[in-house]
Specification:
Blueprint (H helix, E strand, L loop, with lengths): L22 E5 L19 H16 L4 E5 L15 E3 L4 E3 L8 H12 L5 E3 L11 E3 L4 E5 L5 H12 L5 E5 L11 E5 L2 E4 L1 H4 L8 E4 L11 E3 L2 E5 L3 H9 L3 E5 L2 H4 L10 E3 L4
Parallel strand pairs: 1-2, 4-5, 7-8, 10-11, 13-14
Antiparallel strand pairs: 1-15, 3-4, 6-7, 9-10, 12-13
Length: 277
C-alpha cells in the first residue's frame, strides 16, 4: 500500500542535523600542544605536521559547502584544538560542557563567545557535574552519553535537564575501561548505522542499530565523522576505509598521527552544527 501523500509525518528538528550541517568550528593547534594531555606518552606532537593535518581537515569540511570558523590558537590551553569537548550543538540551542580534566575548564569560556554569536539559547553545565563532548553521540533516535573518566553521572543529569525542553531523550551507557571517550570507539554513519570497535559494540549499547566494525588492529579508525556527504576518517587504516567504501560511503582520509599522540581523532577537532534561523 502506498503512503497517503496528504499524511503529515512530524520530523523532530534535530533529526535533520544528524547528517547535514551548515557550520563547523575548529581551532588551530598552538605551540603549547606538546604539553597536551595523553593517556600514554608516545612522544610529543610535531606542530608543523599537526598544522598541516589540521588544514587538510578544514579543507575536507569546507569541501562539503559548510562554513568553517577557524579560531586562533590558545597557548594557555594546550588541548584547546579539541574543541568538541567544550559544547554540544543542536538545532534548538547549544550547551556548554564542563570538562572533567581541570586543565581544560578554561577552554569553555574561550568558546562561549563564538557560540553566543550563533545561538540565542546557550545553556551550560554547572558544578559539580563534569561532561565532555567526546562522550556524546547524537543519533536520530536519542543522545547517547558514555560515562568515562571525563564524564560523570552528575554531568549527564545536568545535560538531560538542559535538553529536555528541546525534546531529546538521553540514554546513559558505560564506556569500557581504558577508553578515554565514548566516541574514541564509535561514530555515526547514518540514521541507522554506527561504526564501532568490537569491544564497544560487544557491550550491547548499539542494540537496534546496524553496526559496521572497524578492522581488527584498526581500532583508532572508529573515531571518524559523518559530515554532510563525507565520512572523514583518520588516514592509515586501509581495511576500515575499504569496508566503508564498499558499504557505499564517500570516504576522505586525513592525517591524524599527531592528534593521536594526545588521544585525539576526527570528531575531537570540530563542533559540527546547523544554528537556528
Amino acid at each position: 500500500m502506498g503512503r497517503d501523500p496528504n499524511l503529515q509525518i512530524p520530523i523532530r528538528p534535530h533529526v535533520r542535523s544528524v547528517l547535514r550541517f551548515t557550520h563547523a568550528i575548529t581551532r588551530r593547534p598552538s605551540a603549547s600542544i606538546t604539553q597536551g594531555l595523553r593517556a600514554v606518552d608516545t612522544g610529543a606532537p610535531n606542530l608543523d605536521r599537526f598544522l598541516q593535518d589540521h588544514a587538510d581537515y578544514v579543507t575536507a569540511l569546507r569541501s562539503t559547502g559548510a562554513v568553517v570558523i577557524e579560531l586562533p590558537p590558545l597557548d594557555a590551553f594546550p588541548d584547546a584544538v579539541f574543541v568538541e569537548d567544550t559544547a554540544l550543538c543542536l538545532p534548538e540551542g547549544a550547551v556548554l560542557m564542563r570538562p572533567g580534566a581541570p586543565s581544560r575548564l578554561g577552554e569553555v569560556a574561550e568558546m562561549a563567545p563564538s557560540l553566543r554569536a550563533l545561538y540565542p539559547d546557550l545553556r551550560e553545565i554547572a558544578a559539580p557535574g563534569h561532561i565532555e563532548g567526546g562522550d556524546i553521540l547524537t543519533t536520530e533516535r536519542e543522545i547517547l552519553v558514555g560515562l568515562s573518566a571525563r564524564t560523570d553521572a552528575a554531568g549527564v543529569a545536568a545535560l538531560t535537564d538542559a535538553v529536555a525542553g528541546w525534546g531529546y531523550d538521553v540514554r546513559v551507557v558505560e564506556t569500557p575501561p581504558d577508553i578515554l571517550h565514548f566516541k574514541t570507539d564509535c561514530a555515526l554513519l547514518d540514521g541507522e548505522t554506527i561504526l564501532s570497535t568490537k569491544r564497544l559494540a560487544d557491550s550491547g549499547c548499539f542494540t537496534g542499530y546496524r553496526v559496521i566494525h572497524v578492522a581488527d588492529g584498526e581500532e583508532a579508525a572508529a573515531n571518524a565523522i559523518r559530515f554532510n556527504d563525507l565520512v572523514i576518517c583518520p588516514a592509515g587504516f586501509p581495511k576500515t576505509a575499504e569496508a566503508l567504501m564498499k558499504a557505499g560511503y564517500d570516504v576522505v582520509t586525513v592525517g591524524n598521527t599527531e592528534a593521536a599522540k594526545l588521544d585525539g581523532g576526527m570528531s575531537c577537532l570540530s563542533l559540527r552544527f546547523t544554528p537556528p534561523g
